[in-house]
Amino acid sequence: MLSNLQQQPADALLALIKLHNSDPRADKIDLGVGVYRTGQGETPVFGAIKAAEKKLVETQDSKAYLGPEGDMAFVEALMPYIFGKANPTMDGRIEGMQTPGGTGSLRLAIAMAKRAGVKRLIVGKPSWPNHNQICADLGLEVLEFSHATAEGTPDMNALRGAVAAAEGSDAILLHGCCHNPTGIDYSNDEWDEIAGLLAEKGILPIIDLAYQGLGNGMEEDAYGVRRVLAAVAEAIVCYSCDKNFGLYRDRVGALYCMAADKAELVKIMSNGHALARANWSQPPDHGGAAVRLILEDEALTAQWLDELDQMRERMRQVRAKLAEAGKTGGVDLSPIGGQNGLFSIIPFTPEQVQAMREKHGVYFAGSGRINVAGLTTGNIDRFIAAVADVTA
Ligand code: PMP
């Protein structure tokens, strides 16, 4: 029976990691994998997480099951950061549950949307490939619109057109901040318009917030989510703590639903719980518990926010340095300075991507997506020179 299965293509990024690992050059540069790196090229555990984990080991008295919703104190502790301190539950209309990472949250959100009768998901192109893969696995059609213009700004005309052409049974997926893979985010004015468009059309927004705090700040990066939720009747927010708490492999995320009223919310969340039960039963606890311990402790919260500020500041410096290089060979690196988060796309041809890898030992996805955090004071000049060389 199992021999009926067809060979699946290897994940392109994992294949890239293998290639990078087998390259003997000492000065090779990895801009592929989507993790933050320090100026020394490391992805360390946050100090605040280490302290919280220590506390967890000392104080945790049971590892008995919690239930499909996971650690609700963790879920609730995040809400003021996402939805604002003034009214984090939107008068009882928002509730959440813990999920295995942002991916688990997206899986649940899209499955819930499908159960609710959503037929198609409108997604900007390019997007994080897993959005399409989850839709394909769940049998949901994806409708694509262009996310960005050639000038490196959000393609608002394409978005307006996609929303105007949407049907009542469509949902739309938007990146809350730090768009992956382009780094091109909506401005506050654009979010204002998007909120109005979605409210008028009445289609379900699913907002993927996987990088809060890595763009312009925790509050700043929540602008779009808050603006849309204030305008529409219902929405889903898929949250990841894997970047802003550096917890990647511990799989820490949450799903939040906003309903028209409290009674609706109970019914909606019961579907989230049932789907979680059928998928993974319960989310892993450890990382979420560490985040909760941080958020329950003022000093640890301050330490975490400080570490997050340092990450963001470093990425801003790398972006500024690339922007300063301006026109390099045949490409202009200046738009990268105004983009947000871990990623940006450089419009390389496939041959140029290959030349970057083979001639210069610089590894990144075939799409031209680079992880800006992979650049350091030690390698950035060499990177800029390599870009100039292959695009000349
Ligand atoms: N959404 C986007 C846009 C992402 O880039 C990622 C991670 N690469 C995720 C969601 C999910 O993150 P995780 O499952 O690792 O929490």
Structural description of this entry:
With 392 residues, the protein is an alpha/beta fold. It folds into two domains: 11-44 and 312-391, Aspartate Aminotransferase, domain 1 (Alpha-Beta Complex), CATH 3.90.1150; 65-296, Type I PLP-dependent aspartate aminotransferase-like (Major domain) (Aspartate Aminotransferase, domain 2, 3-Layer(aba) Sandwich), CATH 3.40.640. Helix content is 43%, strand content 15%. The chain has 13 helices and 13 strands. The chain has helices spanning 12-21, 47-59, 72-83, 101-115, 129-138, 156-165, 188-201, 223-231, 262-279, 286-295, 298-325, 350-358, 380-391, and strands at 29-30, 94-100, 120-125, 141-146, 170-175, 204-209, 235-240, 252-258, 327-328, 331-332, 343-345, 362-363, 369-371. The protein has a seven-stranded mixed sheet, with helices on both faces. Strands 1-12 form a two-stranded parallel sheet. Strands 9-10 form a two-stranded antiparallel sheet. Strand 5, helix 7 and strand 6 (204-209) form a beta-alpha-beta unit. The model has no long low-confidence stretch (mean pLDDT 96). The structure holds 4'-deoxy-4'-aminopyridoxal-5'-phosphate (PMP). Residues 34, 101-103, 128, 175, 180, 208, 210, 240, 242, 248, 253 line the site of 4'-deoxy-4'-aminopyridoxal-5'-phosphate (PMP). Residues 34, 101-103, 128, 175, 180, 208, 210, 240, 242, 248, 253 line the site of 4'-deoxy-4'-aminopyridoxal-5'-phosphate.
